[in-house]
Amino acid sequence: MGTQKLLLPYNFSERDRKALEFTANTFAPHADVEVTLFHAYLSLPEVEIQDRQVTERLKGGMSYLQAKISELESVFKNVRDELIDRGFPPARVRAVFRPRKKEVLNAILDLHQRERFNVIVLSHRPATLGRFFAGSLHTRLISALANVTICVVS
Description:
5 strands, alpha/beta, single chain, 48% helix, globular
């Protein structure tokens, strides 16, 4: 059957921890599974302002945000290491931590288009009014993808 490619979007929530646990418990025993741990954060904008005082304040805020992104990336690497500790061979675990310009759905679809995953494991988030009108991520992924198994962990 060949290697099964699994995508695990991760956004540092308790529900994402459950999806991580599910992935490790269900797929780590199988030698033919390759996991891509994925996080797409909002990219910081390029700022070009001539006013020095405004620029200095913006640089301070941008430096803080960049430090937060670096901190998240460090935690993300620890999550990757946890998958390895739970039984996945290091060569079968990839961590993709990158900026996004669009919504998360588009980032996942773009990655899937390049990688062609067989399985996507998502965490279920409680419904909100915004999600009611826009549709949940897993509902929109199910509509957009054919021939992909989507596991929703609640």
